[in-house]
Amino acid sequence: MKIDLTETTSSKINQALVSARRAIGTPAIGMVLTLVIVTDEENAYDALKSAGDASREHPSRIIAVIKRVSRSPRARRDARLDAEVRVGSDAGTGETVVLRLHGELANHAQSVVLPLLLPDAPVVVWWPDDAPADAAKDPLGALAQRRITDGYSAERPLDELAVRAATYSPGDTDLSWTRITPWRSMLAAALDQQPAEVIGATVEGESDNPSCELLAMWLADRLGVPVERTYSGGPGLTAVRMETKNGVIVLDRADGSLATLSMHGQPDRAVALKRRDTAELLAEELRRLDPDNTYESAVKFGVAKLHAGGEVEAAAVAEKKSAEAEQQAPAAKKAPTKKAAAK
Known about the structure:
Layout: E1 2-5, H1 10-23, E2 33-39, H2 41-54, E3 60-68, H3 73-77, E4 79-87, E5 95-103, H4 109-113, E6 123-126, E7 146-149, H5 157-166, E8 172-174, H6 175-178, H7 181-193, E9 198-205, H8 210-223, E10 227-231, E11 237-244, E12 247-252, E13 258-262, E14 269-272, H9 278-286, H10 293-301, H11 303-334, H12 338-342
Parallel strand pairs: 2-3, 2-6, 3-5, 6-7, 7-8, 9-10
Antiparallel strand pairs: 1-4, 4-5, 9-11, 11-12, 12-13, 13-14
Helix pairs in contact: 2-9, 5-10, 8-10
């Protein structure tokens, strides 16, 4: 069921929600949270579809906030709120409210959203794209217990990681981190099966892919070893290699779907590591509403520190080779040639 409201208010939207629930015979509210999506018209359809699919696991009230850009100065001064209410099969297993904010009202979205939040239920805010620099200090982000961004959609994903590290607050997370959950689980399980000291690692994947950088930073932070970041044509993450004293552990995924796990002394195994869609990633993040300390530690490790570590290691290797060459040079000078020995 859909209800369109033009030049409306938050109270009228709440009345429309109650009337819609009664009309379809579901007056009781069984939703567990409020999911606020801050997006634009271009990305609204995909974001709402992903949120609707995720609501089958987490019944929720979905509020999409779309700020409409006004072209003329007069239109920018006018404030208008249009809304679309969806209940029933049109809204997954919960309710959906699409808010379009015009003019000056676009700068005060929190005043419109606040009366529409479910009482005594957690609030999650998701920016599918164009997230604010400091999500926790954003007026809408300040209403939420969890704030979800996506560095993959940023114009400069690696710079976005630096911003997330500098402005991190408990409750922040990023879908770039969620994408590597199966990789982290598989690598941790491999080390449990073959407990050995890790002396180095390599993460291979697309350039400018924040998930690859986050996985490399997680390994460097947790293992305390140098991690090299190499590049491939993708898709996404393609391989991780961990050097241990018992041999090499390799998790290789060339096609974006099926991976091969190789360990010393064991036969190669095929493992499912398909690339997940946004609805699956969002559903995973909605399962937990407490701060993700592991993400905090990994993102604060820093991309600069990760690459600086690789440069230091490369310099150390070059210095070692240079020293070995210098040691061999005097010996070569002292050793008589065959011609000199004949004389």
